Amino acid sequence: MRRRSLALLMLPALFASACTTGGARRGPVEVIRYNLGTPIAVGSFAVDRDAARGATGLSSDYETVVGAVGDELTRLGFTRVADGAPSIYLVEVSVDRAQVGERRVGPRFGIGLGGGTGGFRGGGVGGGVSTEFGGSTRPVIGNALTVKIRRRTDQTVVWEGTARTSGMAPANADDAAFEAGRIANALFRDFPGQSGFTTTVP
C-alpha cells in the first residue's frame, strides 16, 4: 500500500539560480519539515533501504549520507539498530542529485589588445580585444536530502524533512563526508521544527 507523505506543499526550487562562475563553494541549505504537531518520543530506529530504492536512485556516497543522518538522530537521543532488526521507527533516507551548472576555478589570466588613432579636431577611433586563459570548470550539483520517520507498528509518517542546497561536487571522500554532515545537521536543527515552514541555514 502506498504511504501518504506529510508534505502538503511543493518545495521551492533552489537550484535554478546556480551561477556558472565565481560564488561560494557551498551554498546555504534550505530546509522544510512536516510533523503531526505532537511530541516525537525518542526510541530505536532502523534504516529502511528498500523504501529509499523505490523513491530515488542511490547516490555513490549513500552510506555516507545515511551515516550522517544516523549521527544526527543519535545526537537527538534516538538509538540506531541494525537494518532489519526490531525497532520503534523506520527511517527512510533518499538522495536526489543533478548537475545544475558549472563554475570556473583555478588561476586565470587575460591578454588585452587595444589601440587608437588620432582624428580630426581631437576625435579618435579605437578598439580592443580581451581574451581570458587558465583555470578549469567544475560541475555545480543540486543536492536534495529527504528523510522520513515512520512508526513501524502502523507505518504512520511522524516526521518528514527535506534539505536542499547546491555547490561544487565533493573533491574526495573527506569532502563528501563533511558535506553530508553539514546538510544532515541543517535538516535536524531545532528538531522537530515548525511544520510547513522553510528555513535557511547558512
UniProtKB/TrEMBL annotation:
Keyword set, alphabetical order: Signal
Listed InterPro entries: DUF4136
Domain annotation DUF4136: ranges: 44-193
Superkingdom of origin organism: Bacteria
Signal peptide interval: 1-18
Gene3D superfamilies per record: 3.30.160.670
Coiled-coil ranges from the UniProt annotation: none
Protein name listed in UniProt: DUF4136 domain-containing protein
Organism: Sphingomonas yantingensis
